Amino acid sequence: MSLALDARQRAMLAEMGVRLWAPRAPAAAPAPVESPPARAAPAPRVVGAPPAAAPAAAPAPVARPLPPAAAPAPQPAPASIALAPLPAGIDAMDWPALQAAVATCRACGLCAGRTQAVFGTGSQTVDWMVVGEAPGETEDRVGEPFVGPAGQLLDNMLAAIGLSRRAGDTIQSIAARADSTSAIGQKHQKSGVYIANVIKCRPPGNRNPEPFEVAQCEHYLRRQVALVQPRIILALGRFAVQSLLGSAEPIGRLRGRVHHYQGVPVIVSYHPAYLLRALTDKAKAWQDLCLALATVQAGAPTRDAP
Ligand code: SF4
């Protein structure tokens, strides 16, 4: 993949801490397609936690379809919380019904501590979907995923390839706001991105979600993916990656390859909150973003813009 960077764009990436380098190998074609191994229970989440060191080589992937999410086994609710079953027919809900269902959901104990459920943001007819982990304190208050410094970093990185969560943004307006005269992602016909978390309600004290909570809430994410029909999913953070791919492998071993979720290509990368502390890994995150861009550009033609 060839990225045309002008001087201002290079300066913007430098401000993000992204060092540009000459690629060792062309990235025009996506990495070999791989489906994840059998789903495993996600490891405890530490938002932005550094991944384990990557080994020298990953095992050869074995392509096979991801099994559909199984209905979680009922578990007893904490005595102090009155839970309710997941609403029926999630897989057939439209956007308004799905958002309403999430807003009133009491299918796991996280409903007890939320200010509001954080459903998702951005255009709903886009090629790109970003999936994070769970709302933090600010997201819980604002009602939008990826806000604050981590969200700003994500927005800056997306803007560098011509993407924005803001409705009505165009390649040109994104480039203008980034003070750039060109946009890396000009091959996109659409500039929108939809952003959602695996978990919609804030875990108290930013604790790791329990497997039951993930299993319950994943039904909503699966429907969001089915409605958006993205051409690429960017999975950010170990917990999001493990939830989507059903793999307990660290990000360092999963990034750099194309995975799949519900038939949609998935690129694994670090959570922006981690990147704010691990400056040296920003270049890897940029590399992941470029792999996602190359995967989109090498795939089927972009859908007609809405
Ligand atoms: S986290 Fe998900 S499953 Fe749990 S109450 Fe919130 S919306 Fe429902």
Structure summarized in a few sentences:
By secondary structure, the protein is α/β, with parallel strands linked by helices.
Low-pLDDT windows of residues: 21-46, 48-72
* Distance separating the two termini: 27 Å
Query: Tell me, what's the shape?
Result: globular
Radius of gyration: 19 Å
Structural category is alpha/beta
Strand order of the largest sheet: 1-3-2-4-6-5
Please estimate the helix content. 25-40%
Number of strand elements: 6
The molecules bound to the chains, other than polymers, are:
iron/sulfur cluster
SSE succession: HHEEHHHEHEHHEEHH
Q: How many helical elements? A: 10
Describe the structure using short key phrases.
6 strands; 306 residues; alpha/beta; six-stranded mixed beta sheet; binds iron/sulfur cluster
Describe this structure in words.
This protein has 306 residues and is an alpha/beta fold. The protein is built from 10 helices and 6 strands. The longest helix has 18 residues, at 211-228. Bound molecules: iron/sulfur cluster. Iron/sulfur cluster binds at residues 102, 105-108, 110-111, 117, 199-201, 213, 216-217.
Topology:
Layout: H1 7-15, H2 95-103, E1 121-122, E2 128-132, H3 137-142, H4 148-160, H5 171-177, E3 193-197, H6 211-228, E4 232-236, H7 238-245, H8 251-254, E5 258-261, E6 264-269, H9 272-275, H10 282-298
Parallel strand pairs: 2-3, 2-4, 4-6
Antiparallel strand pairs: 1-3, 5-6
